[in-house]
User: Fold tripeptidyl-peptidase II from Gloeophyllum trabeum.
Amino acid sequence: MLVSAAFFALLLTGTLAKPVTRDLVVHERRDSVPSGFVKEGPASPETMLKLSVGLYSKDISGLQKVLYDVSTPQSPLYGQHLSKAEVDEYVKPTDETVNAVTDWFKANNITATKDTPAGDWLSFSIPVSQANELFDADFTTFTHTETGTKAIRTLSYSLPASLKQHIELVRPTTYLSPRFGIAKASATIYAPVHVVPAPEVSTSADDACSGGITPACLQSIYGIPSTAAPNQDSKILVTGFIDQYANEADLQDFLEQFRTDIDPSTTFSLETLDGGSNPQDPSQAGTEADLDMQYTVGVATGVPVTFVSVGDGGDGFYDVSTWLLGLESPPQVVTTSYGETESQVGIAEANKLCNNYMQLGAQGVTVLYASGDSGVGGSNDASCSAFVPTFPSGCPYLTSVGATTGTAPETGASFSSGGFSNYFGVPDYQSSAVSSYLSTLGSTNAGYFNASGRAYPDVAAQGNEVEIVVGGSTVYVAGTSCSSPIFASIVGLLNSELLAAGKSTLGFLNPLLYSGAASAFTDITSGSNPGCNTNGFPTASGWDPVTGLGTPNYAKLRTAVGL
Assistant:
């Protein structure tokens, strides 16, 4: 009896020392290792993992309704954006969820901290050995063969059945991307903004654009004002990743060449996340970062611009969005020239990040993303058997920006990514415009795309033969990476005028764009975005998946927003 009791006590002690993982059910799974990755082997059991748990929000559908109410011009609540505290009330988990997850953490000796003020994201660190037991997972080292990037992920993880209704996802787990959270540098996702030959100088219908795209050209074709913004409370944030550094000397050279009417010492503020930095050695100047800063500071005259440099020690889009959600007064415009293929992001992950953008929109923040640079191919894969949507452009709570080329007239750029999300359905604000396009398209590309998905891009701007300064040299670049900061500058200037007139900033744009402001865009009716051994989507009258609603007319936009 004494031996049996001791054995029982030992068994009980061993059991209690292990994570509580009874009644586990698979929560997310990948059936195979994604193309381009190599499974190296089990991660070291002692390696510490920083994991985040996304909890279901108390009333996310209620927040969505509020977002549309404050973003739709026909609504009596238009422009009445919420405070951070008001948004948090919708987003925070229920007491039942908090208690259930907290009890689970305590039972497994886990100490978690809040990642967001609302408490819908919790993070903690545990060794690989404990994570494998806790989630019935197999955390493994994966290497992306092209970039050499390594990360520890699992192809499957499970949760206790009792927590399925409380936990939306755990990350990073099944998410495998060439940059593990930000995938711009690899051509398998978005082709980086690329240098192109200097255009031939010709007698154009618009002489300001005869030698390529410059601030003066944009002012001419879009009617962008050159006078300083009247209100300094309008702000633009430019995101930077993968060691792309914005060089202040390059910006000064750019202003001296292309904006001789403003002080060449005009510069930007700097924020850093995840160990990011912004060294100023000319050899480290980033083509992407320089482009983004020069076409915000140099086009949105007088609007304060901030560059946030995100290091490799975190998780890209997620970290930027949660940082912004923690600010009492976030910048009113955020532009991002990076993205990835939608299918590489799990549905739960995509939905949770998209909900972060919903929260920002409800607070009056305009979130802009470049649509991508691979036409309908998404990942530059000519053998693809179906069109490849990009992400986050398919999120319905942000504005996706495609590209045009030429000025007499503008046409859709062949590289301009556009199409239909496989994750998100078509939102009401664009259903009529998309239905009209699909009717015109007919059976073309049938079976290649999800006709009931959220369609993108929403708008377009110049994206080819754009002149910038990098490392002291003047070069021409191309990509939707050019288009997003250009459009961000227009929104920043409009916001400044609205604030000066005692009105609210624009916030989430799409309900406005697809209704009263649609006529404020120049319709682009020539061009296509080939890929997957097809001609891709053709442009058409009205909205199309190459240039969206078209390119902006500043004067008409002023009228559309009530100025």
Summary: The longest helix spans residues 480-500. Confidence is low (pLDDT under 50) at residues 1-18, 179-191. The chain has two domains: 17-57+93-176, 194-560.
